[in-house]
Amino acid sequence: MEFFERFAIPHPSPAIYASMVAIAVVSIGIVVGLTYFKKWGYLWREWLTTVDHKKIGIMYLISALLMLFRGGADAIMMRAQLATPDAKLLDAQHYNEIFTTHGVVMIMFMAMPFIFAFMNLIVPLQIGARDVAFPRLNALSFWLFFVGAMLFNISFVIGGSPDAGWTSYFPLAGNDFSESVGTNYYMLALQISGIGSLMTGINMCTTILKMRAPGMTLMKMPMFTWSAFIANIIIVFAFPVLTIALLMGTTDRLFGTHFFATTNGGMDMLWANFFWIWGHPEVYILILPAFGIYSEIISTFSRRNLYGYKSMVASMVLISLLSFLVWTHHFFTMGQGALTNSIFSITTMAIAVPTGVKIFNWLFTMWKGKIRFTVPMLYSVAFIPLFTIGGVTGVMLAMSAADYQYHNTMFLVAHFHNTIIPGVVFAMLAGLTYYWPKFFGFMLNEKIGKSTFWLLTVGFVLAFFPMYITGLDGQARRMYTYSEATGFGPLNMVSFVGAALMAIGFVTIVYNVYYSYKNSPRNIGSDPWDARSLEWATHTPVPEYNFARIPQISSSETFWDSKKNGHQLFKGELKEIHMPNNSGVPFIMGVIFFIAGFSFVFALWVPAVIALIGILVCLALRSFEQDHGRHISVEEIKETEAKIGGAK
Amino acid sequence: MKIDQSQPLEYSTDQNQLNILGFWIFLGAEIMLFATLFTAYFTLQGRTGSGPTPGEIFEITPVLIETIVLLTSSFTIGLGVHAMRLGRKNAMLTFFGITLLLGLVFLGVEIFEFTHYYHVGATYQTSAFTAALLTTLGTHGAHVTLGLFWGLFIMIQVKKRGINPATANKSFIFSLYWHFLDVVWIFIFSFIYLKGMM
């Protein structure tokens, strides 16, 4: 029995028991359903073994949406607990666990896969490539992300959730103050998915540098591809820092080292520094691709080319450099001294300059444009003022002297949600609506989409703007309750109402998918939005080889040129196409990584070592494998092209 | 598979070029990885708690052997790649074999060095300094260990399949990896050992 006790939940509650039952029921339901409908083979052949960047993108998308609801459930519980003073819905421990998992899930397992989804779906199409540089590595990246997410998500029913905040600061996250295995889950789940992200970064950089269609110089790349490129460069340089920080955190917790301990020379602030040297660039890894999506959408729906292309690129490059030079602003109050704080104040404020350039470029793109207020455009238009408010409060926080007042209050919580929700989440939803027809062959309903937009926007303003006020009045973040005498009650109730509106908004997205699947027309052609860049030049649905002939590029809006100025996009004869073979190895490696991660969490050394050997065996087999891919013959291409809308 | 005869064999196909560029980017990430370890080490080297200081545990002899052996192996793998470009399979295999043997000697001496640290009371758990030292050295050592297996697999493939675009590509990438480990070692030697013994 003693062996099994370690898997027990340290702080059980009826909600957790209900979740256990729900997880068991859903898992059994999935297995029974797959068996009943005889879909195991389909699942294995078409999805689990796929190396196609479009299918991997769709899997990222589904995972991101699932995690959005997991993180959203955490959010609504927090807001419900804080809606009234002295509420008893959650106790302090449970609240700690929920704000921790909310943060990690939303950043690592919702926002990251969402941007990876769009990078996978769009980048190869935008540069006229047939796939990414390393298709199998791409599949492995996805599975590592996925098992990392699953490992993190089972924590609350097996062994206990992490409870030291998404930043997991030491010494709080050390064994002395976080006794449950929760923080082990944090360390290992992030490690596994972080390795996946790093490999995506390498993969995407190589793809963008080497696989562009003929004629596409760097300065003729569509803006989303540029943003993805810069974001992936940041990934390559930021994620190794997290790898090492997590490694040290893991050994501190599992092997009793003293990196971040308060005894034997350990230094707790080293964790905070490493965490934010990764963490701040991470913010830009998320926001730059979001900017890229807005750039595509705003120019499409203003029927104008993007204003200030070169300055857009230059500002992103500048942001990527500055992103590595601001990390200390996350802990101005930790006693670095006035000089250090001043330097980091200035670098932080400097980021507002290139970001401002981008804001004006979007405004000038819309200036005198023929704007169509479709759902993606609504999100983009709302993004500009809302994000600017978030940016301005960011500059307020950047003033290190004033930060002593804002630090660790709800003001900060309001600020970063104000940048992440209109910045990243709105972009993802705008991109989802915009690119949906390309990959699923039908449009999402505009009417429902617009109500989603309004629910989310009004909900967002109601939920987060009151926090600016309560924060300035001194309401601390991460406190599970407050007394009536503080007077925070009414504004927190407004926040709760806003959060509830947002929750309804997210549910309407699911309804929209269902409704549109049933009712939307399927004869929408390959370019339903009258768009401008290359991803719209191929058929809908996109054939597995993307383009029957590799396109010839004339400008950053080649597709628009081909529609309006008679540029000939596809020239020459059809040729045989070489494609990579599917492989089950990435999925199997993912499973082994999961076993390894789980075993490390509970310090089960025998299975941990076996799993690590399993990973090395997979690598060795891959080294010896000879896989030359397969060729799609010209006849087959002609057949496919005829079936999905005629050769272009 | 299109083979471009004007390029060296390891660059001769599109996929080969992708592999090499991808690996260079990976090495960029590796630089950040070791840079983080060095940062941790420099931050924690004076924080010895009740444990020994760097000067008390470092010994020059094993470190010098490790350095000479590893630097030599970097030279021999360069000769191996040169032989590969000349298409001389046996010479290439010999130089790769010498490289891996030198790597094995390096690893043996490093294990001896670690047991020495253990005996003088500088274990993984002793202090922040020892943890940072052993993690930095250990990460490098783990890279070398992985490289030994990887190199061995590539040698078997070259022996069985000959020098072709695929095996040449793998061998070249492996040589980049091996040189990189050497560069990291130079930093370890200069800024951890020499600085610690001064």
What does this 3D model show about the protein?
The complex is a heterodimer of chains A (648) and B (198). Chain A is an all-alpha fold and 648 residues long. In chain A, 67% of the residues lie in helices and 1% in strands. Chain A has a domain at 1-278 and 584-626: Cytochrome C Oxidase, Chain A (Up-down Bundle). Chain A is built from 21 helices and two strands. The mean pLDDT of chain A is 94. Chain B is an all-alpha fold and 198 residues long. Chain B has one domain (9-36, 60-197): Up-down Bundle (Four Helix Bundle (Hemerythrin (Met), subunit A)). Chain B is 80% helix and 0% strand. Chain B has six helices and no strands. Chain B has helices spanning 14-44, 54-57, 60-85, 89-119, 128-161, 165-197. In chain B, helix 1 packs antiparallel against helix 5, helix 3 (60-85) runs antiparallel to helix 6 (165-197) and helix 4 runs antiparallel to helix 5. The radius of gyration of chain B is 19 Å and the shape is elongated. The mean pLDDT of chain B is 94. The chains are: A mainly alpha (648), B mainly alpha (198). The interface between A and B is large, with 44 and 39 residues.
At a glance:
The complex is a heterodimer of chains A (648) and B (198). Chain A is mostly helical.
Under the CATH scheme, which architecture of the domain at 1-278 and 584-626 in chain A would be assigned? Up-down Bundle
- Work out the number of β strands of chain A: 2
Architecture of chain B, CATH level 2? Up-down Bundle
Q: In CATH's first tier, which class of the domain at 1-278 and 584-626 in chain A applies?
A: Mainly Alpha
**Estimated radius of gyration of chain A:** 25 Å
**Could you say which structural class the secondary elements and strand pairing of chain A correspond to?**
mainly alpha
Give me the strand/helix succession of chain B: HHHHHH
The stretches of 5 or more residues of chain A where confidence is low (pLDDT under 50) are none
Q: Write out the CATH superfamily name of chain B.
A: Cytochrome c oxidase, subunit III, four-helix bundle
- The radius of gyration over CA of chain B amounts to 19 Å
Query: Could you give the order of strands across the largest sheet of chain A?
Result: 1-2
Helix count of chain A equals 21
How many angstroms separate the termini of chain B? 56 Å
